Amino acid sequence: MRIKLITFLLIGLFSTFIGEIKSEETCYYTTRQDYKKCKKEGVTFLPKYPIENFHSDAGAMGEGVSIFVNNSAIGKVYNVVEFKAYEKEKLQITLGTKSIGFMYGLSWRNPWIEKKTFDIDPKRIISLEKNDKSFMAAWPRSFLPRKYKFKYLDSYGEVKLIKFDQVLVGNKKEMFDMIGDYLMYVSDLKWGDERSVALLIENTLKDNVKFLTITKSIILDRNNSPKNKCFIAKDSKFPELTQRYKKLYKTITPLRAKLNLPPASDLKPICS
Question: What is the average pLDDT value for the chain, to the nearest integer?
Answer without folding.
Answer: 88
